[in-house]
Specification:
This protein is of the alpha+beta class and 380 residues long. The chain folds into two domains: 168 residues, FAD/NAD(P)-binding domain (3-Layer(bba) Sandwich); 153 residues, 2-Layer Sandwich (D-Amino Acid Oxidase, Chain A, domain 2), CATH 3.30.9.10. Helices cover 26% and strands 28% of the residues. The chain contains nine helices and 20 strands. Strands 1, 2, 9, 10, 11, 12, 19 and 20 form an eight-stranded mixed sheet that branches. Strands 13, 15, 16, 17 and 18 form a five-stranded antiparallel sheet that branches. The chain has a four-stranded mixed sheet with strand order 6-7-5-14. α1 packs parallel to α9 and α2 crosses α9. The radius of gyration is 21 Å and the shape is elongated. 46% of the residues are buried. This is FAD-dependent oxidoreductase.
């Protein structure tokens, strides 16, 4: 062993999942002399997927029964609400309505059945009159009411995770870009570039356990691991989603979702609110070749047309570009949606390495459940 710095555990990526993993690991080993570092290439935490989403706490309705997405979403939702209560993270159990036309009512009932199989037991089917009483501006014939769906201030949540982790001794290292990872007999050697674009310097350290939670960069990080069989790295597809803000006061008191279309990359352009009650619509889905967060303002009319299926009063000039995000898909356009992919030694043959791929929605909701799932697999 060289004189390099050494950590027991390195987590790559300070998005919501990486931060949750570091926090859960720090709790697991808090009475032991275990060192944990989080590497983040940006200047701060949560700059990509974690801060560019709907900020919805999902119930666990849509995902295939028995999938990691279904199990970790349902468990994670309860853990997340509990965390928010305990640590004063701004959130609101606002509830969601999945709205349907007459021709979609059978599909809505099937959706309820799937949700029950996933362990979501609080859903109520509403008829047109019941829906009108709750949301008079919505045009639909039926709805599924999910009272356990909510919204969260994701930045405050990530801040709480980092603060709690650091209080338990975790070191946070921003401006740290991983360039190469070598494997030695009993350790990984992580080669980083620190303070890129400023006083750039190289830095190497050893670690026993390596957790790749780098989100959009997870596949790129995996390709730098010297001993990793490259055929174990799933292909990454960028799927962009734009959000438009609504000019004026929100006419809704719940989140409003259309029925999901079969085999689409998202859940349809839905209405969601942030903690300041600002209404926004999105995301749409567009497969792209590179990461680009620019929004085409000309999309407003197309958005309005889609939204008008359940909110007829909407007009294109009611909308203004808000922000966009990129989902790290493991399925190509038109292919069936895929599950989270969490790989340990059994999948790739590299002891001490855990990799997370395709960590899109419901990653925010599931973050603490994902973290516990990972923490159980880490043995020092």
């Amino acid at each position: 062993m060289s004189n390099r710095d050494s950590f027991d555990i390195c987590v790559i990526g300070a998005g919501v999942i990486g931060l949750a993993i570091a926090y859960e690991l720090a709790k697991k080993y808090k009475n032991q002399d275990v060192s944990i570092v989080i590497l983040e290439r940006e200047s701060s935490f949560g700059q990509h997927i974690s801060s560019r989403n709907s900020e919805v706490i999902h119930a666990g309705i849509y995902y295939p029964t028995g999938s990691l997405k279904a199990e970790l979403c349902v468990t994670g939702k309860e853990l997340l609400y509990s965390h928010c209560e305990q640590f004063d993270v701004p959130h609101q159990k606002i509830g969601k309505l999945i709205v349907a036309k007459n021709t979609e009512i059978d599909a809505l009932a099937q959706l309820k059945k799937k949700a029950i199989a996933n362990g979501v037991l609080d859903l109520q089917l509403l008829n047109r009159a019941e829906l009108q009483r709750l949301e008079p501006h919505i045009e639909a014939d039926a709805a599924l009411h999910s009272p356990s769906t909510g919204i969260i201030d994701s930045h405050s949540y990530m801040q709480s995770l980092l603060h709690l982790a650091e209080n338990l001794g975790v070191q946070f290292s921003p401006y740290s870009r991983v360039e190469e990872i070598d494997t030695e007999a009993d350790a990984f050697v992580v080669h980083c570039r620190l303070d890129e674009n400023r006083n750039s310097e190289q830095y190497q350290f050893n670690c026993q356990q390596l957790i790749n939670a780098a989100g959009l960069e997870a596949q790129a990080i995996a390709h730098t691991v010297s001993s990793l069989p490259k055929n174990t790295i799933p292909r990454l597809y960028y799927c962009k989603g734009d959000y438009f803000g609504y000019r004026g006061r929100s006419p809704f008191s719940h989140l409003i979702y259309p029925m999901p279309e079969a085999n689409t990359a998202g859940l349809g352009i839905h209405a969601t609110m942030d903690m300041s009650s600002q209404l926004k619509f999105g995301p749409d889905t567009e497969y792209v070749e590179e990461i680009d967060f620019e929004i085409d303002g000309n999309k407003a009319e197309a958005f309005a047309k889609s939204i008008s299926s359940y909110f007829p009063a909407i007009k294109g000039n009611d909308l203004n570009p808000a922000y966009s995000g990129i989902r790290p898909k493991l399925s190509a356009l038109g292919e069936a949606a895929t599950d989270f992919e969490i790989q340990g030694e059994g999948a790739h043959g590299v002891p001490g390495l855990i990799q997370l791929f395709g960590m899109e929605s419901p990653g925010l909701t599931a973050s603490l459940a994902i973290a516990r799932h990972i923490t159980e697999r880490v043995v020092l």
